[in-house]
């Protein structure tokens, strides 16, 4: 059996919980949740039931996503929580079939009790993998498992799936989640608290010097850092996998027309703006302006929409040019006052505030934006510690009247060339600076028509 959803729907239709001798309908204050993990945070509860614990979580949290198997049980949860709290204004109730599409990638805390002992290992893995991607970089997951050896299900009673401690640890290790607390209650209930292996570029930038000094002790794989290095001295733990030293930053220049992007599918990649639609399994996405999503949605009905963009598995970074007074912060979002466009940033893993536009910084607090998303992509790669940075589609030229290898931006070749001429000054200054101050960082052009080829070496991608 791969999925117990149909069994639970059947049991709920037949008022299973109302008949359950151990299930009562009194409010519960969960004693395994830390106050600071949910206070003013975005929280997900997997298996909210009738809201016996949800009411308490919602009384403290900024936003709660409450998941259960059927709309029937969610309706009862709304009534129960309203009776306790007086409202459910900060709760969004979602069925197990719809939550993946509706929960954004900025969750701070995921909680589940008395659920994972009643769903299959495949379902458990799916929840864990899903919320790994939706978890904010400093977020946590707390899940209760039942210890034991029973694994099975039948139609007329609860499915039961029990695990050994090692099996539960294996779930999270395979998901690249760090175990930070294990608690066993009554010799049978295991509460496991885990967090994301830190991949925030703020964290990477802060620790970059330490990583370089200890590069024989600390090994990094992809964008994940193993240990949560605190300010005090912490033993360095060796990873089995090593740092990818090479990254491909993909822009939109017409030199990429007809390029087979599957050539870089297994490489570390940073996609710039609309290139995210073409680079398979990109690791990172960075932009200063995602209005291209609106233009795509208006022009083609079945192109990438904002909803699909929000589900992309890559890490997403939005750069705010803080030296421009027309960008104004409002709540968690920014408004471009020139045309009252609101940038909704809930789908981004991190928002980078940059007040400088010239040169390249070596720390996140000194992030330089160069007035363009492409420039931000190079800056991101530098801060993350990549040693070889390959620039694809960084033409800074209009070729044969084509502005991009893709369509959809709508700017004339003449107007776009004027913009490129403006950007070029920032690129040339920044690249010369890196060549002079950090010659160990190799930046290579992969565009045969790039105006940057007079500053950096050119290599064709085989």
Description:
Helix content is 28%, strand content 23%. The protein is α/β, with parallel strands linked by helices. It has two domains: 5-196, 3-Layer(aba) Sandwich (Rossmann fold), CATH 3.40.50; 246-454, Alpha-Beta Complex (sialyltransferase cstii, chain A). The strands form four sheets. It has a seven-stranded mixed β-sheet with strand order 3-2-1-4-5-9-8, with helices on both faces. It has a seven-stranded parallel β-sheet with strand order 17-13-12-11-10-18-19, with helices on one face. The protein has a three-stranded antiparallel β-sheet with strand order 14-15-16, with no helix packed on it. Helix 4 (54-60) packs across helix 5. The longest helix has 25 residues, at 413-437. The protein is elongated and about 75 Å long. Mean pLDDT is 81; it is low at 199-243 and 295-305.
Which helices and strands occur, and which strands form pairs?
Elements: H1 5-13, H2 16-19, H3 35-38, E1 42-46, H4 54-60, E2 63-68, H5 71-85, E3 91-95, H6 99-102, E4 107-112, H7 121-134, E5 135-146, E6 151-154, E7 157-161, H8 165-174, E8 177-185, E9 189-196, H9 201-213, E10 246-250, E11 268-272, E12 284-287, H10 292-299, H11 306-310, E13 315-321, E14 327-330, E15 333-336, E16 341-343, E17 350-354, H12 373-383, E18 388-392, H13 413-437, E19 442-445
Parallel strand pairs: 1-2, 1-4, 2-3, 4-5, 10-11, 10-18, 11-12, 12-13, 13-17, 18-19
Antiparallel strand pairs: 5-9, 6-7, 8-9, 14-15, 15-16
């Amino acid at each position: 059996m791969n999925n117990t959803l149909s069994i639970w729907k059947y049991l709920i239709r037949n008022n299973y919980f109302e008949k359950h001798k151990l299930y009562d309908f009194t409010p519960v204050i969960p004693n395994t949740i830390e106050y600071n993990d949910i206070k003013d945070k975005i929280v997900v509860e997997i298996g909210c039931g009738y809201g016996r614990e949800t009411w308490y979580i919602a009384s403290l949290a900024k936003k709660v996503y409450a998941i259960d198997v059927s709309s029937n049980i969610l309706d009862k949860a709304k009534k129960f929580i309203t009776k306790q709290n007086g409202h459910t204004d900060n709760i969004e109730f979602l069925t197990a079939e719809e939550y993946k599409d509706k929960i954004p990638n900025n969750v701070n805390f995921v909680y589940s009790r008395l659920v994972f002992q009643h769903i299959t290992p495949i379902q458990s893995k799916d929840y864990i993998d899903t919320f790994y991607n939706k978890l904010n970089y400093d977020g946590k997951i707390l899940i209760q498992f039942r210890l034991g050896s029973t694994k099975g299900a039948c139609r007329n009673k609860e499915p039961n799936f029990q695990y050994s401690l090692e099996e539960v640890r294996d779930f999270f290790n395979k998901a690249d989640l760090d175990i930070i607390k294990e608690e066993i209650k009554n010799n049978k209930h295991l509460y496991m608290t885990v967090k994301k292996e830190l991949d925030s570029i703020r964290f990477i930038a802060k620790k970059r010097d330490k990583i370089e000094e200890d590069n024989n002790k600390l090994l990094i794989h992809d964008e994940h850092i193993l240990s949560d290095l605190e300010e005090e001295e912490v033993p360095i733990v060796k990873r089995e996998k090593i740092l990818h030293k090479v990254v491909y930053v993909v822009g939109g220049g017409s030199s990429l027309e007809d390029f087979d992007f599957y050539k870089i599918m297994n490489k570390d990649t940073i996609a710039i703006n609309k290139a995210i639609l073409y680079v398979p399994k990109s690791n990172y996405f960075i932009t200063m302006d995602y209005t291209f999503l609106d233009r795509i949605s208006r022009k083609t009905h079945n192109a990438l929409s904002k909803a699909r963009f929000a589900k992309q598995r890559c890490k997403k970074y939005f750069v705010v040019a803080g030296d421009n007074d027309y960008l104004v912060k409002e709540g968690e979002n920014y408004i471009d006052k020139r045309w009252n466009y609101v940038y909704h940033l809930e789908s981004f893993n991190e928002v980078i505030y940059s007040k400088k536009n010239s040169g390249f910084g070596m720390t996140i607090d000194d992030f330089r934006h160069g007035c363009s998303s492409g420039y931000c992509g190079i800056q991101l790669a530098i801060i993350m510690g990549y040693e070889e940075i390959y620039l694809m589609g960084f033409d800074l030229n209009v070729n044969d009247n084509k502005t991009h290898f893709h369509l959809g931006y709508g700017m004339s070749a003449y107007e776009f060339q004027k913009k490129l001429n403006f950007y070029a000054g920032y690129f040339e200054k920044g690249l010369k600076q890196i060549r002079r101050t950090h010659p160990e960082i190799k930046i290579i052009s992969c565009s045969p028509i790039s105006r940057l080829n007079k500053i950096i070496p050119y290599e064709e991608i085989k």
